[in-house]
Structures are given as structure tokens and as C-alpha cells.
Write a structure and sequence with these properties.
The complex is a heterodimer of chains A (194) and B (523). Chain A has 194 residues and is an all-alpha fold. Chain A contains 9 helices and no strands. The longest helix of chain A is centred in the N-terminal third of the chain and has 27 residues. The longest helix of chain B has 20 residues. The chains are: A mainly alpha (194), B mainly beta (523).
Chain lengths: 194, 523
């Protein structure tokens, strides 16, 4: 907190220490976000986004930095802030049309493929994806969250376990259970047998 | 699918959720939100996979400089606002004690005046390169003699983000307000050249323009100060910017160039490492020095467009339009449009050959910024560290509106008995510029007058208000509409001041001005 307070006052030494200590983390978080979303990390755009993260910390009278509380470690807070800002940056560049070949929603197809289980031989076309999402929204929140993290965000069992505070070997059963609920929900929604 | 919830939680809550440190009810609320909000979930999902790198790299000095100045910049706004409010209340109590009758409402109802809060009427004020924001009001904080550089408890090497435990709040201790920085190490600034090369201001860059200072580099911001050792690079594509609001500079992709200013004879200096740089003096007559090896190629009385290209051991300068006198050593001649001056690092003579004017002119028009701003006064300038368009308020008072200042006209007594009273606001430009073809003056106004006049020097133009009384409106007047006794304002005429005047039909009135700009739009 002392370092944060020092930066809020506009102290150059404070900012130098903040950038020395967390510069690599912010850069890594931004680069990882680019890789996850775009499957590529153009050095120039990444540098630009890193700069945007730092400037967002000190803009508007250090409003964001003032919002930091000791509820979380500064490194975690900066990591989440960096990923969020990098996502904002990518979205804004996409709107401007300067980024092409963006795969933001490519991973959405995986869930369709995985739901095509051999025992039921059900086929979900891409046109029916919206039905799937509609059904997903009807699931209990815990199931919805775990499915989205696994299928949409591409998190590993280990990461999901870490995020949800559960044992890694229970994640797969949670996912299976949520998938079953989803299938059931889809059938019910389309007038099928539950 | 990509739903963004209206009330996304703060980053600190997302981080707390990721670390598992939230209270059960907060965690449950967060889980509900993450199940519904793709944006937040994606942020934490990606963040959860990131492990903090062990090494800490060198600090980017340019970025550090920007961050420090940005963190200082806006801090004074609340102080300024508070000071203005306190002052206004104090003045109100002094002038209008409770026993006095309530004064008649003036047109300016919302804004409170502050006595000369921002710009002192001191013309010819030099631009202060690194100005500490002056405290507007004494802040109620305990001033420490010098803060320790870093007071954070040293930690073991960084662990993965998730594994890291939050900083445990310290035991209750007396709350010490953040120390006001009195003495500190300055941020690395552009280095002045002992030979008299002063730093230059680069404004409004477009394209992929980067600034390199030693090993540090950063994308050029909307306002940069750069010295002779700082290189501007156009990376992914061409780039352009305004040099001190006097010259438009276009850099072809892959070009690297440094700029400086020799104040002794008002000469701009260009050192081209590689690539193609094109200059447009935007209607003014300038001096340029092109540095190449041991040679200096000088262009004096240059008014037009020039393309300078570095081809390894050769440099060429091609006058694309306009006129200039070119000098190399003791040789001097009039530059010819379309004739390229070629020199090597050891050349002692001017050599000319035919250049590809049309192709370069087309590229110049393609790259150039679409708007050239010769002057811009927002009346909030002193909050910034640099002032690219220095000016002084000659008539009128700066008043605080909703978060920003504007210029409120002074009341002028009638010159003769029986004549009308007036209102006037005037700015004096510390750095005059020449009128350009197609230039306009733009400003915001709020008035109770049906019409008012805008004067540039002795030339004036009448403007009929289109905004409702008491509401802000926008005006734009082409400079060709300004005249004096039938003679119009012509290109290259100097613009040294701008004055807004109006006559009052009633006893009181209002003429407020904000955002005065002189622009030239390029088609």
C-alpha cells in the first residue's frame, strides 16, 4: 500500500519502483491476453496495450490506483487489470478495424463438438448454437460458470480448480454433471424428453 | 454472448475472487456475476493462468516519464475546484453579507469566478518544459521532508499470482496522509545539446509513430517533447505529426529521424537516420538545417514542401512545391521545384538531378494529418506540464465551469455618453502564426447578445449567435470572412491576437468564450 500511496502522490521514485517490480508482470499479462484471444501477439500492438495499462493507472488523478485495496495482492490486482485493459484494447482496435483475423469466438465451437456425444449421436449445427447458449443461461450459476470457463475460456482443470477453490480431480465431474444438465435443458427447451 | 454487465465489479473484487479472499456473500455475488458477464469472466480466466515472471526488466524511461507526469497532472483539478469553490464562497460572504439585499441574478449563474486562477496576464511567457503543478490551495497534509524511495516490505521472489497471498493490512496505526513530494529525483528528460539545439514539441501524431530515447521507446502520445538525441520512428506504416504547430512532418514507413530547434536563428534541424521525411511549412517561411555526416544542408526562406530521403551513404532533398534558398558550405542557390539536391557524407558541392515530384507529393498528401492546428486554447492549459500554444489573456477573466475553465468577457464602459456598454475578451498569442488558405477560427460561446464581433488584429468578422441565450454553442468562421475597410485578411498575414466584443442592449449581458482554435483542414 505504501508503494501505491507513493505513486498516487506522483512520486517518480515510487513509479520507477512500481514499473521495475511489476513491469514484467504487466507485459506478460498483456502478451498472454493477446495470445489467448488473437492467437498472436504483434509486438507493436502489445507495447501499445502495455502503455495503455500503465497510463490507465495514473489517468484521472490515479482513480484506478486509488481504488486498489488490500483485499488482494497488488500483483493479482495488476494482473486482472492488465488482462481487462488488454481485452478492452483489443476490442477497441477491432472496432477501429486495425485488427483482423481475430478469433475471439473461435473457441465457442468446441462446446458444440464436445456435445456431439457418440452415445446419443446428437448433432448440433452452428446455426443452433444460440439454442445452446439460451439453455446455458438457464443452468444454475455454478454450472454455468464452470462450463463457460472450461469451454469458452479454455481453462484447464487445474486452473478452474484454483479459481473455484475445489480439488482438481473434482472439476471433471463438475463439468460432466453440468454438461448433462445442459443437454437436459436443451431437450426440454426443444420439447424433447427429459 | 459477449454480454457486458452494466455494473461490473471493480478489479479489486475480481482479484479477491481469484485469490479466494472474498467474504462468502461477496464471493457468491461475484460467482453470479461471472456466470453472466463474459468480459469479467474472460479477464479472470486469463489472469488465473498467468504466473508472475521472476525477472524484472529495465524500466522504460519514456513510459515512466509519461506515467509520472500523468499522475501529477490531474491531481490539482480537485484542489483547483475546491479552491475556486472556497474562494467563491468566501468572496460571496464578503461581498454579500446576510444582511445585504440579495443581488440581482447575473447571467452567469452556475459558474463562480476565481481571481486569475490559471493564466496570469504576463505575455511572452516562455514554455516551461517540466513544470511542477503549483498547489492552488494549501493542502491539509503533513509535509514530509523526503519520502523513502520505496517503503514496501521486501518479499520473496514472485510466486504464481493465485498462490500469492494478499497484503495483510498492518496493525492499526495513526493514519498518516500520503506525503507531499517536496524533493525527488526528476524523471529523465530530453537532453539539451550543448551546441544550442533545443528540444521540440511534437503534436497530434497520426499513424504508427514511436519515440526512441536511448534504449527506451514508447508510442508517441498526443504531445511529446523531444531533443536532438530522440528519434521518431514510423513503424508499421507511415506517420505524421505537427512540429510545434508550425510544420507538418510526414515520415514514411521505416523512417527514423530526430528534430531539434536552434533558437539563435529560429532554425529547425533534422537528422535523418534512414527513410523518407516530408515537410510542409503550412504557409509560413522557415529555416531548416538537414544534418548529414559532416555536412549541413541549409534551407532558408523555405515556404512549401520538401522531401528528404536517406539512401545509405547518400541523402537527397527534393523541393516538391514552393520556394527555398539552399546552402551547402559557402555555396548557395535558389532551389528548383522538381530538382533533387543530392549529397554524400563528404560532399562539398551541390549536385542536382531530376526527382520524382508527383509520386512524393501524392504520398505526402496521403500521409499528412487531415487537420493542422495552428493555435488551440482550452483555458485549462496550465494544468498540463507543457504549453504547446502559449498565450496570455488580455481582456476577460477565467472562470470555472463544470470541471474546466472558460473565458468570461469583461464589461466595457461606453466610450462616449449615449453609446452602448460593451463586453470584451481577448487573447494574445505568444507565438504568432501566418494565415493559411482555408483556415478557420473555431470556438465555443455562450451569450445573451444577438450577435458579436471577432477581431484578429484590425480585421473583424461579425457573428450572429445561433445558440439559445445562456447555452453553449459552437462557432466556426473562415478567416477569409475577416476584413478591414473592405480589405480581406490574406494568407501569410500574422495572427497575433483574437478579440471577442459585443454591445449590450440592456444593462447586463454575457459573452463567454471557450476552446478557441485556429485550424486548417486538409482535403
Amino acid at each position: 500500500m505504501a508503494l501505491v500511496q507513493l505513486c498516487i502522490t506522483g512520486n517518480a521514485d515510487g513509479w520507477r519502483e512500481m514499473m521495475r517490480k511489476y513491469g514484467a508482470l504487466v507485459a506478460h499479462a498483456v502478451r498472454t491476453t493477446f495470445m489467448r484471444v488473437l492467437k498472436q501477439a504483434d509486438a507493436s500492438l502489445v507495447d501499445d496495450a502495455i502503455q495503455a495499462v500503465w497510463l490507465s493507472l495514473c489517468s484521472d488523478g490515479c482513480r484506478r490506483l486509488r481504488g486498489f485495496e488490500s483485499k488482494a495482492a497488488l500483483s493479482t490486482w495488476l494482473t486482472v487489470l492488465s488482462t481487462r485493459r488488454a481485452l478492452d484494447y483489443i476490442r477497441s482496435e477491432m472496432r477501429k478495424g486495425s485488427m483482423r483475423h481475430v478469433h475471439l469466438d473461435d473457441e465457442d465451437r468446441d462446446i458444440v463438438t464436445e456435445l456431439q456425444t457418440p452415445e446419443t449421436e446428437e448433432k448440433y449445427s452452428l446455426d443452433e448454437v444460440f439454442v445452446l447458449y439460451e439453455a446455458m443461461e438457464k443452468l444454475p450459476e455454478a454450472d454455468k460458470l464452470i462450463l463457460k470457463m472450461y469451454y469458452l475460456d479454455g481453462l484447464s482443470y487445474r486452473s478452474i480448480a484454483g479459481v473455484m477453490n475445489v480439488a482438481p480431480n473434482t472439476v471433471s465431474s463438475y463439468i460432466l454433471r453440468a454438461r448433462d444438465k445442459l443437454k437436459k435443458c436443451i431437450k426440454e427447451g426443444s420439447g424433447g424428453v427429459s | 454472448m459477449n454480454t457486458m454487465e452494466n455494473s461490473c465489479p471493480d478489479v479489486v473484487l475480481l482479484a479477491g475472487w481469484l485469490e479466494g479472499t472474498l467474504a462468502p456473500q461477496d464471493r457468491s455475488r461475484m460467482s453470479s456475476h461471472l456466470a453472466a458477464c463474459d468480459e469479467c469472466r474472460r479477464s479472470v480466466a486469463i489472469a488465473s493462468t498467468i504466473e508472475a515472471p521472476a525477472e524484472s526488466g529495465p524500466v522504460n524511461e519514456i513510459l515512466l516519464s509519461k506515467v509520472v507526469s500523468a499522475s501529477r497532472r490531474r491531481r490539482i483539478l480537485p484542489f483547483a475546484t475546491a479552491a475556486a469553490a472556497v474562494l467563491a464562497v468566501a468572496v460571496g460572504f464578503t461581498l454579500f453579507p446576510k444582511s445585504s439585499p440579495v443581488p440581482a441574478p447575473t447571467p452567469v449563474a452556475v459558474e463562480r469566478q476565481t481571481p486569475a486562477p490559471m493564466i496570469a496576464p504576463a505575455p511572452r511567457r516562455p514554455v516551461d518544459p517540466v513544470r511542477e503543478p503549483a498547489p492552488v490551495a494549501p493542502a491539509p497534509v503533513v509535509e514530509a521532508p523526503k519520502p523513502p524511495p520505496v517503503v514496501e516490505t521486501p518479499k520473496a521472489p514472485e510466486k504464481p499470482v493465485i498462490a500469492e497471498k494478499p497484503v495483510v493490512p498492518p496493525a492499526p496505526a495513526p493514519v498518516v496522509p500520503p506525503p507531499v513530494v517536496a524533493v525527488e529525483k526528476p524523471v529523465e528528460a530530453p537532453i539539451a545539446d550543448p551546441k544550442g539545439h533545443s528540444p521540440v514539441f511534437v503534436l497530434d501524431p497520426v499513424g504508427d509513430l514511436w519515440l526512441r530515447r536511448g534504449a527506451a521507446e514508447a508510442k508517441a502520445g498526443s504531445f511529446e517533447k523531444a531533443a536532438w538525441k530522440d528519434f521518431f520512428e514510423a513503424r508499421a506504416g507511415g506517420a505524421a505529426f505537427s512540429l510545434e504547430a508550425r510544420t507538418s512532418v510526414m515520415l514514411e514507413k521505416g523512417s527514423e529521424a530526430a528534430f531539434s530547434h536552434l533558437k539563435t536563428d529560429d532554425t529547425f534541424s533534422l537528422s535523418l537516420e534512414q527513410g523518407l521525411v516530408m515537410l510542409d511549412t503550412e504557409g509560413s517561411s522557415q529555416k531548416w538545417q538537414i544534418r548529414f555526416g559532416k555536412n549541413n544542408l541549409n534551407f532558408s526562406d523555405f515556404n512549401g514542401r520538401l522531401a528528404i530521403e536517406s539512401r545509405g551513404d547518400r541523402l537527397s532533398a527534393l523541393l516538391l512545391a514552393g520556394s527555398a534558398e539552399v546552402t551547402l558550405g559557402d555555396q548557395s542557390k535558389k532551389a528548383t521545384v522538381g530538382q533533387e539536391v543530392v549529397l554524400t557524407r563528404e560532399t562539398t558541392q551541390i549536385t542536382e538531378q531530376k526527382g520524382d515530384t508527383l509520386k512524393k507529393l501524392a504520398r505526402l498528401d496521403e500521409l499528412r494529418p487531415k487537420v493542422f492546428t495552428a493555435f488551440n486554447a482550452t483555458f485549462d492549459e496550465k494544468r498540463e506540464e507543457f504549453q504547446p500554444y502559449p498565450y496570455a489573456v488580455v481582456s476577460g477573466k477565467l472562470s470555472l465551469g463544470q470541471g474546466s475553465f472558460f473565458l468570461q468577457s469583461d464589461a466595457l464602459p461606453a466610450p462616449k455618453p449615449g453609446e452602448k456598454n460593451g463586453l470584451a475578451a481577448e487573447l494574445h498569442l505568444d507565438r504568432p502564426f501566418g494565415v493559411m488558405t482555408g483556415m478557420v477560427v473555431k470556438f465555443r460561446y455562450r451569450t445573451t447578445l444577438p450577435s458579436f464581433s471577432v477581431k484578429i488584429g484590425k480585421y473583424s468578422a461579425d457573428y450572429t449567435s445561433r445558440a439559445k441565450a445562456g447555452q453553449w454553442g459552437e462557432a466556426e468562421i473562415p478567416l477569409r470572412e475577416f476584413s478591414f475597410e473592405g480589405t480581406p485578411l490574406l494568407p501569410s498575414d500574422p495572427v497575433e491576437n483574437v478579440r471577442f466584443t459585443g454591445f449590450l442592449e440592456k444593462r447586463s449581458g454575457q459573452l463567454d468564450i471557450d476552446g478557441v482554435q485556429f485550424l486548417r483542414r486538409v482535403r
